[in-house]
């Protein structure tokens, strides 16, 4: 068993262990969850540290026959697209479980088990190299997430969870059909029916034309709903606001990334021509999402909805960078996935800490909280600054590269999106201002500053904010070779597609 | 070689001060906080001074890119993606060292002044932490070797400006003013950011040396790329340096502590835009249309803000409008290509405006925070030394020889005359208004009846606050020597020219007969302004005026109202509408479309049971059917 299988298996084992512990032994249950997720993070950190930056191909690969009769393989691997996302996911789970221990009283057993199952699903999604295996993990993170919202959420949790489920299942259903169709196409080209992605990509699929467009749209629908892309986002405000903040953090930080990751992992190599053809449309949607989300965030009174729309606005930048289809923009999108996970995650954690103290989610219920909780105010300020892309913090690196690359490909989109940076400053400073500044509201002076456990959760995130902001090289270096190869293959496949599918099929020249 | 070490120390020492006071300031005594903060800045200033000594001493290594002596200090590669490479690089040359000395010198004085001014404020450690972070950012801004690295300092000083304006954050006006400053300057920074992208497109880099060297080859004179690049960068400069129409944040920024107003909103940060244009003068010279616009914006801002200062009742806000007006002179200077004159005025303005603010701070300190001049008056008897200091600053601002402000403003005006006579005329008119408004401020504050009566025990500030004022007063008096000499160019210009000449060509300086007339004219206007001010505000023999004009002035030509009605209101309304529409229209449209896409609405309605287990079962059955099909195949 290689390290990647351990990453998937450990949370399952932890969940099993938690299932064996009595439900009234909350401390033990939380300890099982925490220890498991810390071990998972240790392995993920090891994988990240030992990942060879210069190589474009998959590393730490694990192959095993799964259902050979239908071309299913158990194939795991990480490359530049996924290695940092795996590390991010593994980093956030112990923090989320730690925060949950402080913010969610009771029902620890169910929570720990469900969260660990979710971790398996999320890590598997980023590592699976077989289309069906990916689909299994993809759905595997949907079900625990549904329960986390539906069982631990706020008063409106039931409809919010159902809407989330319906939306994502609609997308998943389309993707399921499309991935079977892709396997068919692969069989036509290679003469072998398989769902193994590297095998399918060994030679250009040469789909082309409307067929490629339809399959691209089916995949993209699933990914766009997860991100979410305007106008498929209307599940988000309810789900983000109704879920407990620690769960929202996992929704925004990891699950949204799965959508963006899917575009790069599947759509770009499988449907390069459609990626190019639909680029303008999706860039327009991205710009709308950036500005629309930013404007609405500014008008929100509920801090969770403010952060939810802000998160959507920031995901627009990632989408914009992906469809600029050049190296700076793609690198920017990849590093921004990590940044968004760190910064938005930290914002939701802080929102959770505030709500746990006061029971208020409406920002108008706050004011002057910085007087009684200066450390919390400082932490919130740093995180907000990273989210509004202040140079020196992580957010700047990503948005700078995205906008720079987009400016080269689509100047108009980049100019419009650049105003999203002003919008981000507007709603994030409004968030800070309404809560921490102004006359001190009743009861907030004695609200209590960050406790040591809370500091232990926020300090790692703040450390990453400055590390990536000042020295992003380790992250950028890990993904550059893969992104380069991806773009080169996409360009080659486009050329092949223009020469006609028969040439590509007959010639069998792999790029 | 000492230069790289010194160059790195200059920004990192205050950064260390920030870290120390920011993390542990709460546990330090006031004394320790003050020693850490002032010590860090003093050390940084000493490093900058050593840097000056070193670059005068050492021959430049190899061929210097900008045509003058310059040293490049590479720290590490910051952002890299293919051909896009941004190293963290410092550039040490006469211009950056001169700026570092101004920033460090004025910064040190204001740190020392702050020890007395902020004594007794519970947020003292936070204040000095922010102030040190500002120094680090500002040093970084002036020493950065490329546009992208400069942007770190550029936004960093903006952040500190926001933090320090909103320092007393429980006051709603202070919190709002901080946000306003951040957002308005960030609007300009969109231009700066896009300018960086254009620079990458044109030069493949944003390195100042390369941009200066290649500007002639890569930018067609008056071409679209040159004009776009210059205008985008100017948008950033106009935001940071509070030029029309982005000036609106600076008067409100006076909500911050007064030493902050002196340091950030008069002497250093707000001049960053001028510095950036001078730094990239080779690029700006390729865009004559943009240069004309910069000069025009500067001239119009100079007279507009001077007029606004004329009716402002708040002492600090008078000085804020005065700063906007003086920054306008600097942009006028760089717009007509008089780059070293711009830096000269930047320097002398840093001295006399910091002095004015510190004197105003001493007044506030004595009056318990009062800034409204309608409740002042007659303070000359109570605060004789503060009055003298303010008077020196005011005379320099008014352009009375032989104070520094006279030399630097006069140099700008004569350069403007050579470029376009109307710019000179506007500049001279603004100079007249300047003399009037500063005399008005002086008269309302220090002369006339003592409105406070026996109420207070107002007295001159303690030595820790007085000493920086006297040093600045000395610099205000002597600062003219930096730019004046019997034969142009002066010391500062000769020093700067070694770095500036490359792109700019030899400075066009005819001198001769016209010069004397111009100088006489501007001195006459200044004196006339003072006389008019004296008659109106002291002797009160000229009353009345034009009420309509006064109304227009006191509303600053309704520019802020236009923003509120034309920009902020509609955006806010749009955002509110969108927020509601998102929950109704967008949601309904998507859900409706999803239903319509289902081929048979009736058939699907039966499946829409709302039970999770049914949906899960559907998915499972679907997957099993597909698998079964393939297994049996």
UniProtKB/TrEMBL annotation, chain B:
The GO cellular component terms are:
endomembrane system; membrane
Bilayer-crossing regions: 33-53, 95-115, 127-144, 190-210, 219-239, 259-278, 290-311, 323-344, 351-368, 388-409, 421-447, 467-486, 518-537, 612-631
Give the NADH-Ubiquinone oxidoreductase (complex I) chain 5 N-terminal domain ranges.
78-128
Q: Where is the NADH:quinone oxidoreductase/Mrp antiporter transmembrane domain?
A: 144-433
For biological process, the GO terms are:
ATP synthesis coupled electron transport; electron transport coupled proton transport
What keywords does the record list, in alphabetical order? Membrane, Transmembrane, Transmembrane helix
Compartment(s) where it occurs, according to its Swiss-Prot or TrEMBL record: Endomembrane system; Membrane
Q: What molecular functions are annotated in GO for this chain?
A: NADH dehydrogenase (ubiquinone) activity; NADH dehydrogenase activity
> Record keywords: Secreted included?
no
Q: Which Gene3D superfamilies match?
A: 1.20.5.2700
Topological relation to the membrane, as annotated: Multi-pass membrane protein
In terms of Pfam families, this protein maps to: Proton_antipo_M, Proton_antipo_N
Q: What is its main location?
A: membrane
Name the record gives this protein: NADH-quinone oxidoreductase subunit L
The gene name reads nuoL
């Amino acid at each position: 068993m290689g390290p990647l299988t351990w990453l998937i298996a450990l949370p399952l084992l932890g969940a099993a262990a938690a299932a064996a512990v009595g439900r009234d032994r909350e401390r033990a249950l939380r300890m099982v969850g925490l220890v498991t997720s810390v071990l998972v993070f240790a392995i993920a950190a090891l994988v990240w540290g030992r990942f060879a930056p210069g190589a474009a191909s998959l590393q730490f690969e694990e192959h095993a026959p799964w259902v050979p009769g239908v071309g299913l393989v158990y194939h795991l691997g990480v490359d530049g697209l996924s290695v940092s996302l795996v590390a991010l996911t593994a980093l956030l789970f112990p923090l989320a479980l730690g925060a949950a221990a402080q913010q969610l009283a009771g029902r620890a057993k169910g929570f720990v088990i469900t969260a660990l199952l979710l971790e398996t699903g999320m890590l598997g999604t980023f590592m699976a190299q077989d289309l069906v295996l990916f689909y299994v993990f993809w759905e595997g993170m949907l079900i625990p997430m549904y329960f986390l919202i539906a069982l631990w959420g706020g008063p409106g949790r039931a409809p919010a969870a159902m809407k989330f489920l319906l939306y994502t299942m609609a997308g998943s259903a389309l993707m399921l059909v499309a991935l079977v169709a892709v396997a068919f196409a692969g069989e036509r080209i290679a003469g072998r029916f398989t769902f193994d992605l590297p095998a399918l990509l060994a030679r250009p699929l040469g789909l082309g034309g409307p067929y490629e467009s339809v399959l691209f749209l089916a995949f993209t629908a699933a990914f766009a709903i997860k991100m979410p892309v305007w106008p498929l986002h209307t599940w988000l405000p309810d789900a983000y606001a109704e879920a407990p903040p620690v769960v929202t953090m996992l929704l925004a930080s990891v699950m949204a990334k799965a959508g963006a990751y899917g575009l790069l992992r599947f759509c770009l190599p499988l449907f390069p021509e459609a990626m190019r053809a639909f680029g303008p449309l999706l860039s327009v949607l991205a710009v709308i999402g950036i500005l629309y989300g930013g404007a609405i965030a500014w008008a929100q009174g509920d801090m969770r909805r403010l952060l939810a729309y802000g998160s959507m606005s920031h995901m627009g930048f990632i989408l914009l960078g992906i469809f600029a289809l050049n190296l700076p923009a793609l690198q920017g999108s990849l590093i921004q996935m990590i940044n968004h996970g760190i910064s938005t995650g930290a914002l939701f954690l802080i929102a959770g800490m505030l709500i746990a103290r006061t029971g208020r989610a409406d920002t108008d219920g706050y004011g002057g909280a910085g007087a009684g909780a200066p450390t919390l105010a400082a932490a919130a300020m740093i995180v907000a600054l990273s989210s509004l892309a202040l140079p020196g913090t992580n957010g700047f690196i990503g948005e700078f590269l995205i906008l720079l690359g987009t400016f080269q490909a689509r100047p108009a989109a980049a100019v419009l999106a650049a105003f999203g940076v002003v919008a981000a400053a507007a709603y994030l400073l409004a968030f800070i201002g309404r809560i921490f500044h102004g006359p001190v509201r009743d009861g907030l002076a004695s609200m209590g500053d960050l406790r040591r456990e809370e500091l232990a959760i926020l300090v790692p995130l703040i450390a990453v904010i400055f590390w990536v902001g000042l020295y992003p090289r380790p992250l950028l270096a890990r993904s550059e070779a893969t992104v380069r190869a991806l773009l080169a293959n996409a360009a080659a496949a486009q050329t092949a597609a223009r020469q006609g599918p028969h040439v590509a099929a007959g010639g069998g020249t792999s790029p | 070689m000492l230069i790289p070490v010194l160059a790195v120390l200059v920004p990192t020492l205050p950064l260390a001060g920030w870290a120390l006071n920011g993390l542990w300031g709460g546990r330090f005594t006031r004394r320790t906080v003050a020693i850490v903060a002032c010590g860090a800045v003093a050390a940084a200033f000493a490093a900058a001074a050593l840097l000056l000594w070193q670059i005068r001493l050492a021959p430049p290594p190899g061929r210097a890119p900008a045509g003058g002596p310059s040293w490049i200090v590479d720290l590490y590669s910051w952002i890299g993606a293919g051909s896009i490479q941004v190293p963290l690089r410092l550039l040490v040359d006469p211009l950056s060292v001169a700026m570092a000395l101004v920033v460090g010198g004025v910064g040190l004085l204001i740190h020392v002044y702050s020890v007395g001014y902020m004594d007794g404020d519970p947020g003292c450690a936070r204040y000095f932490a922010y102030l040190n972070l500002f120094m680090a950012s500002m040093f970084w801004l002036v020493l950065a070797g490329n546009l992208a690295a400069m942007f770190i300092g550029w936004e960093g000083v903006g952040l500190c400006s926001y933090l320090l304006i909103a320092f007393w954050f429980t006051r709603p006006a202070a919190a709002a003013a901080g946000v306003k400053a951040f957002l308005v300057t960030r609007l300009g920074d969109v231009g700066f950011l896009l300018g960086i992208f254009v620079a990458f497109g044109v030069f493949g880099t944003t390195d100042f040396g390369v941009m200066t060297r290649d500007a002639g080859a890569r930018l067609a004179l008056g071409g679209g790329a040159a004009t776009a690049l210059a205008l985008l960068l100017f948008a950033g400069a106009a935001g940071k340096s509070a030029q029309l129409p982005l000036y609106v944040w600076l008067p409100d920024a006076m909500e911050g502590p007064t030493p902050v107003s002196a340091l950030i909103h008069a002497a250093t940060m707000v001049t960053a835009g001028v510095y950036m244009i001078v730094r990239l003068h080779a690029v700006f010279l390729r865009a004559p249309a943009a240069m004309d616009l910069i000069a025009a914006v500067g001239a119009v801002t100079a007279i507009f803000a001077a007029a606004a200062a004329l009716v402002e009742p708040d002492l600090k806000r008078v000085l804020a409008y005065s700063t906007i007006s003086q920054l306008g002179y600097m942009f006028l200077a760089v717009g007509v290509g008089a780059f070293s004159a711009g830096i000269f005025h930047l320097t002398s303005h840093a001295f006399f405006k910091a002095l004015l603010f510190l004197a105003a701070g001493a007044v506030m300190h004595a009056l318990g925070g009062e800034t409204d001049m309608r409740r002042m008056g007659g303070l000359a008897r109570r605060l004789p030394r503060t009055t003298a200091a303010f008077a020196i600053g005011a005379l320099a601002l008014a352009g009375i020889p032989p104070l520094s402000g006279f030399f630097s403003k006069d140099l700008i005006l004569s350069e403007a005359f050579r470029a376009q006579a109307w710019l000179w005329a506007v500049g001279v008119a603004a100079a007249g208004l300047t003399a009037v408004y500063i005399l008005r401020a002086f008269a309302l504050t220090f002369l006339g009846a003592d409105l406070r009566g026996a109420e207070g025990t107002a007295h001159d500030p303690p030595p820790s606050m007085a000493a920086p004022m006297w040093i600045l007063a000395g610099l205000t008096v002597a600062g003219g020597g930096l730019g004046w000499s019997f034969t142009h160019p002066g010391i500062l210009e000769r020093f700067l020219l070694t770095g500036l000449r490359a792109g700019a060509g030899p400075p066009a300086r005819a001198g001769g007969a016209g010069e004397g007339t111009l100088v006489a004219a501007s001195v006459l206007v200044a004196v006339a302004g003072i006389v008019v001010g004296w008659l109106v505000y002291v002797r009160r023999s000229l009353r009345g005026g034009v009420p309509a004009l006064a109304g227009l002035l006191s509303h600053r030509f309704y520019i802020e109202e236009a923003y509120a009605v034309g920009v902020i209101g509609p955006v806010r309304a749009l955002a509110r509408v969108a927020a509601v529409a998102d929950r109704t229209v967008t949601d309904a449209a998507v859900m409706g479309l999803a239903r319509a896409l289902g081929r048979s609405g009736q058939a699907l309605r039966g499946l829409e049971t709302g039970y999770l287990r049914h949906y899960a079962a559907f998915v499972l059955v679907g997957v099993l059917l597909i698998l079964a099909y393939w297994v049996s195949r």
